[in-house]
C-alpha cells in the first residue's frame, strides 16, 4: 500500500511514442534518427486472461484488497455524487475513471471523449463540468473558443483536457454545424494519437503541423454528431426528480477540497505512467468501443479493489445501451432491423416488393417511418438509406408470376450480420396483396 501523503504535484513523466507520419510529407516519419530505444516497449504484461470477457460473467470478477489508489477513486466518486445525480451507478463509475484517466494522457493510444448529453436544460450537464474542471489534468474550457485557438493550445508532450460546454450551440442545427465542421474534425481527429492538422503560419506562410490528441468532455442538449458519439463514453443526464437533492457547487468553498483530491490523484498516477502504457487489459467490448474504454479499464486495473470489476460492468452495460439506442435511431441501423423483422414475420420470403415493404414499415406505430418526411417514407428515401449499406433494389418476381421493383432477402444478409445480429421477436402479420398501399415510386 502506498503512503497516504503523496509527493508535491509536478508535471507527469513522458512516455515516448514512435515517430509518426506527417500530413503532406510522404515518408517524413522515416527521416532523421531511427532511435530504436525511443519506442514504447509494448511487450509488458497483459492484464486478465486471453479472450473476450462476457457481460454475464463480469459480476463474478473477484475484488482485490483495497489500495491507496482504489480509495482515491472512491473519494472522487463520492465527491462527484455530492454535486450531480448520475443516470446510473455505472455512469458515475465512468465519470470517475475518465477524470482520473486525464492524468495519464501520455500513456494512451486513444483519448476517450466524455459526451455529457441530456434532453433539456437543467439536467446537471454544466454542473458536472464544474466538478471536472477542478479535478482533471490541465483543464481548458472551450466555450465559443475557435478550433485554431484550441489546436494551438495542444502540445504533444502534455496535452490539456478539453471541456466543451453548450455544444448544442456548435452542433445543434445543420446550418450551425456546417459552420463548425472544423471543430467536429478536431474532436474526431484528437481521439487517436498522431493525428495532426497542418496550417500555414507566419508572414511567409510556412506549413506547420499541430497536434490534436487530447481528452475532451463535451456537454450539450441532445445528441452530439454521430462521429463524436462513436468515440465517446456517453453520459445521458436527467433532470432531478422530486426528492433528489444535490449539494450546490460553490467555488470558494468546494474548489480547495477538489484541488487537494486532484493533486493526490495526480501524484498517485504519475509513477504509473510507463506501466499504464504497457498494459493491454482484457475488454468486454471490441473495436472502437474497446479503444475508447481501454484507458478507463487500465486505470481501474491499476487502482485495484473493486474497480476492475466495476469498470468492466460499466463498459459492457453502457456500450450495450448505446448500441440499442443506435438501432432505434433512424439514421443508424433501425431501418435494417425493421426490415429484418418484416422478412421474419412474412416467413422469410426470397423477396418483397418495394410497395409491400413500405406499407409494412409504415404499420409499426412505434417506428418513425409513417411520419418520415412530408408524406411518410418513400421508395426513393428507402433506396438512399439502404444504399449506404450496399443494398440496391431490382426487379423481383412475385408469387403471381409478375415482376415488380423490390428487394431480395439475400442482399440484406451481410448487413444484418454486421449491424443488427440479434433476432427480435416479430409481431408483423402477413398483409394480403390487395391491401398493400402503393408508394411513391422513382427510386434513385
Describe this structure in words.
The protein is α/β, with parallel strands linked by helices. It is built from 16 helices and 10 strands. Strands 2-3-6-1-7 form a 5-stranded parallel sheet. It has a 3-stranded antiparallel sheet with strand order 8-10-9. A two-stranded antiparallel ribbon has the order 4-5. The radius of gyration is 25 Å and the shape is globular.
Q: Which helices and strands appear, and what pairs or packs with what?
A:
Elements: H1 68-83, H2 89-101, E1 113-118, H3 125-133, E2 139-141, H4 147-151, E3 161-164, H5 168-171, H6 174-179, H7 181-189, E4 196-201, E5 206-211, E6 216-221, H8 226-229, E7 232-236, H9 251-269, H10 273-278, H11 287-303, H12 307-328, H13 334-345, E8 351-353, H14 354-362, H15 379-387, E9 394-397, E10 403-408, H16 413-419
Parallel strand pairs: 1-6, 1-7, 2-3, 3-6
Antiparallel strand pairs: 4-5, 8-10, 9-10
Share of residues in helices: 25-40%
User: Distance N terminus to C terminus?
Assistant: 66 Å
* Structural domain count: 2
Mean of the pLDDT scores? Answer: 79
Unreliable spans are 20-54, 423-444
How do the strands of the widest beta sheet line up side by side? 2-3-6-1-7
CATH secondary-structure class of the largest domain: Alpha Beta
Shape: globular
β-strand number: 10
Instruction: Count up the helices.
Output: 16
What class, by secondary structure content?
Answer: alpha/beta
The largest sheet, given as strand count, sense and whether it forms a barrel, is:
5 strands, parallel
Superfamily (CATH H level) name of the largest domain? P-loop containing nucleotide triphosphate hydrolases
Rg estimate, integer Å: 25 Å
Strand content: 5-15%
